[in-house]
Design a protein that fits this description.
This protein is of the alpha+beta class. The chain has helices at residues 16-28, 44-49, 69-79, 91-116, 120-140, 154-163, 166-173, 184-194, 197-200, 206-221, and strands spanning 7-11, 33-36, 58-61, 64-67.
Amino acid sequence: MEEENRVTLHGMWASPYVKRVELALKVKGIPYEYVEEDLMNKSALLLKYNPIHKKVPILVHNGNPISESSVILEYIDETWKNESPLFPQDPYQRAKIRFWASYIHQVYDCMLKVFRGEEQDKALEEFYAKLSVLEDGINNTSLGITTNMNNIGMLDIMIVITLGAYKVQEEVFGFKLLHAEKTPLLCSWVTTLIELPIVKGITPPHDKVVSFLQYLKNKVFKATPHAN
C-alpha cells in the first residue's frame, strides 16, 4: 500500500513551474520524494515519463507520470480532496480562479521578456500594466490576501512563485518590479506570503539564486539594466 501511494516529483531547483508543484505538495501535507534533474543531461526516467516535452516538473503517483504544472496542480487537488483545497468547490468560483491563474502566468511570461531585454521599455510598460490589472482584480473580485498558511490556495501559489523572488531579481537585473505605492494590495499579498514558513521552506538560498540569475543575465538573456 505504501508503495502504491508513493509520490515522486522530478524537478529542477530553479524552475518556477516545479516550485508551484512543490509548494502545492507542502500545502497539502503530501509526503513525496524529490528527484533533481540535470536538464543538460536528461535522465532516462525523465525521458520515459515525459517523452513528448522532455521537461520538468513531472509528478509520479502510483507509478503514473503527470506532466505540465497546471495539470499537476489540478491532479493534486482532485486526488487529495480532504487536504487544504487549492480550488473552491463552486464551479463558477473555480472558473474565476483558473482565469486569474492564467493571467498570473501571463505576468510571468511578460516578466521574462523584461529580463531577456526584448524591447525593454515596451516590455516593462506591459509588465506594469498587467500588475495594475492584477491589483484591480485583487480589489474588485476579493481574491484576498493570505495571512494564514492553512488558507493558501491556487492563486497564492501562483503569485508567490511568480513574484516572490522580486527583491533578488531587482538586485541582479536592475529593474524595479514592484512599487508599493502603485500596487499596494499586490505588494502586501506577496510580502505576506514570502514570510510564511511553508514558503520559506522551499525558497533556495539567496546566493544560489543570485548566481543562477547572473548566469541567465550574462549567458542566456543578455539583458541590460534599465534606468528607473
